[in-house]
Amino acid sequence: MRLHLGIDVACRASHRATCTDATGEIQFSGRRFTTTPTDLERLWDSLPTTDDVVAIMEPTSNAWVPLAAWFQRHGAKVVLVPPEQSADLRDYYSKHTKNDRLDSRVLARLPLLHPEGLRERSDTGPANALRRAVRRRSSLVERRTATFYRLDALLELLGPAWADALGTGSYSKAALAVLEKTGADPHALRRLGRKRLAALLIRHSRGQWREEHAERIAGAAQQTLQLWPDGALDFAELAEDIAGEAHMATHLNAQITTLADRITVLYEEADPGRIIASGPGLGVITAAGILGRLGDPNRFTSLAGIRAFTGLVPRLSQSGLTGRDGPPTRQGDPGLRETLFKAADIARHTDPTLAARYHDLVVGKGKHHNSALCTLAATLITRLAACWRDGTLYELRDTDAREITEAEGRQICATRYKINKDDRAKVHVRRRSQRLKDPTTSRREKESPSAPATGPSRTTLRTKPRDHHEPLDVR
After folding, report:
1. Is 393 in contact with 278 (CB distance < 8 Å)?
2. 353-383 pLDDT, tens per residue?
3. How far is C-alpha 164 from the geometric centre of its chain's CA atoms?
4. Contact 167, 179 (CB under 8 A)
5. Among the listed ranges 26-35, 59-68, 323-332, 363-372, which one has the minimum average pLDDT value?
6. Which residues are CB-neighbours of 100 under 8 A, at least 6 positions away?
7. Which of 247, 249, 329, 276 is nearest to 134 (CA)?
8. Which H or E run contains 448?
9. Domains of the chain (ranges plus CATH)?
10. CB of 368 within 8 A of CB of 431?
């Protein structure tokens, strides 16, 4: 006999559990327990004798992870229900009531109400070390990017010459060392001197930045003094802010480097055959990002399910005999979509089949670069998942199915499917012309319903109601 155990997971309070049999008859309802071995054993012993238990719960924070792991170790199947799905069924079950007992009852009876929507969860999600490491690295990269943007904004106060001297958007170790030591203070750089500045650059850049870069930085400092004479800008206070941001960026760089080494080890354990990394142009970090966020591809029943999980498939709108494809659904992990988007942009420069598809979408059909890459990303994850299921490496082939090397693939993509600026400009003009011709998308045909009036609705004050035969005042 199969038992369904609906669990309303709580973060701090006690959980609620309701048990039903295969027909939906309640065995017990609203039983309280906590995530402790004693309570879990007591709950398990209270279940009727059976070898088939399905634990159904919502992914509430990370509190569901130890519960799912405990039930899986005891032979139960674990099903995670999307919160929006259980909320809809809860509204149907009881329109005006919301309590923990009702939540556990809805989850326990979910197999009867929506059996096709249940998918067994084989992994423990955030408990997976590779997934946590990949997500943490992504978070650190975002924080480092935000720090670089703040550095750009602060250096703009000193003048445009600093962008040419240090670069913008992505600062090297040598540039961060100079900013951390001097804060881009022109007086501090003058006291440091060109010789010691050049030695500092050589040491932190391993000889790539030398005396010519020191001259550029000194020239930028001189230009700053000319732009801000007579103490119009407090260089010391600004230097404190710049040095602090540079120190933060240096610390984030060190953490990202350390985490990359850890991710490499975890990926080798998860994918010893390096199947995901065999994708065209993909490195270990990108492959780990895909595998860590996607999970085991074998847990999906079909390749279409994997594409749907990424959220890169178009949203389908049907009514009667009409139907159209909309924008991507954007369901699932946004970090997975971002990783696949970047991986597709890398792969199209190595795989001729992907390059040909991209060329046809952009030049032939006039698609935007981002739209074309979303299509390529869905194709790429389908191929990688198929390779994972078959246990084979990604085979790079030309459009005529001839097997080629990565060097040959890059040469073919660069010569046969290269899109220059003129081609992109023509596509942009054609796409803009199509938007203007379509009244449903043209901005010129739209008026904002909430736009304020340019003047008063009337120019004269009416003291009595207007007669229906009186003409309107259109002045």
Report:
1. yes
2. 999 999 999 988 888 899 999 999 999 999 9
3. 31
4. no
5. 323-332
6. 8, 10, 16, 30
7. 276
8. none
9. 2-126 (3.30.420.140), 132-262 (no CATH), 277-316+324-421 (no CATH)
10. yes
Q: What is the CA radius of gyration of the chain?
A: 31
CB-CB neighbours of 394 under 10 Å: 21
In the chain, the amino acid numbered 254 is: A
Q: By the 8 A CB rule, do 56 and 6 touch? A: yes
Q: How far is residue 74 from each of residues 41, 44, 53, 70, 474, measured CA to CA in Å? A: 10, 9, 10, 7, 81
Query: Both tokens of residue 436?
Result: 């203007």
Q: Is 14 helix (H, G, I), strand (E, B) or coil?
A: coil
Q: What is the number of other CB atoms lying within 10 angstroms of the CB of residue 278?
A: 17
Distance between CA 249 and CA 145 in Å, rounded?
Answer: 9
Could you read off the pLDDT of 165-190 as tens digits, one per residue?
Answer: 998 778 999 999 999 999 999 999 99
Contact yes or no for 350/286 (Cβ under 8 A): no
State pTM to two decimals: 0.75
Which residue shows structure tokens 């020191």?
Answer: 214
How big is the CA angle at 125 (ends 119 and 127), to the nearest 5 degrees?
145
Give the angle subtended at the CA of 292 by the CAs of 380 and 146, to the nearest 5°. Answer: 90
For the four alpha carbons of 266, 268, 272 and 275, in that order, the dihedral sign comes to positive
Q: Which of 436, 454, 456 is nearest to 446 (CA)?
A: 436
Could you write out the DSSP letters of every residue in 322-365?
EEEEEEE---S-HHHHHHHHHHHHHHTTT-HHHHHHHHIIIIIS
Report yes or no: 315 and 325 within 8 Å, Cβ to Cβ.
Answer: yes
Q: What is the layout of strands, in order, in the sheet containing 52-57? A: 26-33, 15-21, 2-8, 52-57, 77-80
| Residue whose C-alpha is closest to residue 279's, from 294, 291, 296, 270 | 291
For residue 9, give both structure tokens: 């997971």
Backbone angles phi, psi at 31, to 5 degrees: -75, 130
